[in-house]
Specification:
This protein is of the alpha+beta class. It is built from two helices and seven strands, in the order βββββββαα. A three-stranded antiparallel sheet has the order 1-5-4, with no helix packed on it. It is elongated, with a radius of gyration of 25 Å. It starts with a strand and ends in a 20-residue tail after the last helix.
Length: 159
């Protein structure tokens, strides 16, 4: 189950999903897969998949955030994103990275980089907002212009 997935609530037909890879009844760790979500003819969720909308958001309500619940969904080998590991035609798992935790960390690298960039962008925007607010509080007097005797700049108020 995953909540707050962009595009999942009403529009997405396919998703990249991180899930446990089971090969010959052995858990080979978390890997990425391309998973079809909805029937291309009628846009209804495929068997074993429940999809819904997260509802109204406090900020950007136009984003279609949703949730997806998987219940015994099998993913074909063709949908395995196998950059860091593979499964041979005879069903043998192989990877140049033997440690499953390291393999998983490398597969998350792209997601982590994106989240770091979002954080950096937000810091830049917050600094810009603070600069605008500070300039406003320095220039604006308590009751507006023209300045009356005894009025203070907004920045002089503690709150």
């Amino acid at each position: 189950m995953k909540f707050w997935i962009g595009g999942a609530g009403k529009t997405s037909n396919v998703s990249v999903v991180f899930a446990q890879l089971i090969v010959n009844e052995k858990n080979e760790g978390v890997h990425a897969f391309i998973v079809p979500l909805r029937d291309r003819q009628n846009h209804l969720p495929l068997p074993g998949i429940t999809i819904g909308d997260c509802g109204r958001k406090l900020a950007v309500d136009g984003i279609d955030n949703g949730f997806i619940i998987f219940d015994h969904v099998r993913i074909p080998k063709e949908n395995f994103l196998n950059r860091l590991s593979d499964i041979s035609e005879d069903g043998v798992f192989s990877s140049p990275i033997k440690n499953g935790d390291q393999r998983f960390a490398l597969s998350l690298n792209g997601l982590s980089t994106g989240r770091i960039l979002i954080s950096n962008d937000m810091c830049f925007l917050l600094k810009k907002s603070l600069k605008i607010a500070m300039r406003f509080s320095i220039m604006r007097e308590q009751f507006g212009s023209p300045k009356k005797e005894g009025e203070d700049q907004l920045i002089n108020f503690q709150l």
